[in-house]
Amino acid sequence: MEAEEVINSHFSHVSAEVWERAEKIKLLITDVDGVLTDGGIIYDNDQMEYKKYNVKDGLIIHHLRRSRIMVGAITGRASKVVENRCEELRFDFHYHGVKDKLKKLHEILETMELELDQVAYIGDDLIDLPILHQVGLAVAPADAIHYIKPYVHLVSPFAGGQGVFRDTADLILHAKGNLIPLIQTFIEKNDE
Question: Which residues in the chain land under pLDDT 50?
Answer without folding.
Answer: none
